[in-house]
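Tutorial, part two.
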Amino acid sequence: MPVIRLGTRGSLLALSQSKIVASEIQQSHPGIQIQTIIIKTTGDQITDRPLHDAGGKGLFVKELEQALLAEQIDFAVHSCKDLPVTMPLVDQSNLIIAAIPARIDARDVLISRNAATIEQLPPKAIVATGSLRRRCQLLAHRNDLAIKDVRGNIDTRIKKLRAGEFDAMILAMAGITRAELFDPSLMHPLSPDEILPAPGQGALALQCRRSDQTTRAILAKLDDPPSRMAIEAERAIVAALHGDCHSPIAAWATIDGQTLHLRAVVGHRDGDPPIISARSHAPLSQNSDAVTAVIAQLHAQNVMALLS
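Running the prediction step on this input gives:
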């Protein structure tokens, strides 16, 4: 039977995501075999400092992309938000996102033993997050909070919270769901009005070689056009602002009928308030108009001064 080699990181979440994708491929292509190849990335090995100080989330995909180009794997499963929009670490000329499967819950989730909302956190609460995007939005809500950087896999981070190292932690709902770690007694999804998600959050990206037509055809059946349209709009915001790993940019697009709704929040470089926000909508047939309008609103608020 045909065999296709799936490349993935070795974390609990990465393996859970890869199993989901492998199952969907086998359902759409009965008889195909999936060989999972675990690749340790630079991002997995850096645990002593914030990732944005070491080169950004692109370090979670670098070695996977190199393995693709070396033909050691046929496709890679990434968290979409880990893929750099600007300044990729690997030449992209023979790489392509062949599929973005249907997105799941894009929200962030507050993990806390004694609060269900940001407002309910105790004074000067210690909140763990490695995200500059979350940091600036948290401090915009509550400037008394003490934000502490945290690294490690999703299950390791939750163990640290349960052990009492922090008062609260913010993670992505999608990751918790896919890793089957959701605990309603401890975890509380946050409204986008509280914390706007990262571009691509909640979505997976299936990447292969542009020249590999066989793998592209197999993966294409998993592509979800509405999810792809929304995520491309979010990533277009980052591209227009020349965002990098020190740019706290949130963007979230949703589709309602024949309309795309787009929101963005931008904080000060390196994760401090103030934050500015913008929103717009456009027909699906002219979805780029929503991106143009949001960017114009941000520029009217002097967004580049925040990001410089």
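Residues 3-100+203-223 form a domain with the D-Maltodextrin-Binding Protein; domain 2 fold (CATH 3.40.190.10). In part three we will examine how such features are distributed along the chain.
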